[in-house]
Amino acid sequence: MLVILLGLAILLLDQITKQAIRANFAYGESRPVIEGFFNLVYVRNDGAAWNVLSGQSLVLILISVAVLVLLVVYRRSFLQETLPHRVMLGLMLGGIVGNLVDRIRFGWVTDFLDFEFGTYHYPSFNVADSAICIAVALYIITNLLGKERGTGSGEQEDG
Question: Known catalytic residue: 102?
Fold first, then answer.
């Protein structure tokens, strides 16, 4: 139940924030929130992360659907029944579906979070992207910690 609720919460937050940007910003507009560090922008990404597969909406839709199916069908083979892994799955599912909804509706994903670090400008992203990245980081961390403890994929140790 946690996985479904978290996934739905991410999906709703993602879609609400994207709609707010589309309704209140002109395409390409940027507004500083913290000057020289954080901006809200309205950009359209017709590719995946860092604009990989740009213009390949159908391919990206098919990949998203395939990943969703694989995550649901095979989750027990790589995830444990631990809270961190349930959270990770909810974040991942909500994030993938959030971007999938945009791709199906528009053929592109609305990105709006924009960070600068000195002269480095990080590619814009959204709530769904954030959820997916947090899920991947959580998965890596729990697996690394599990291996250090000798328990595998973040399993709980007896003892």
Answer: no
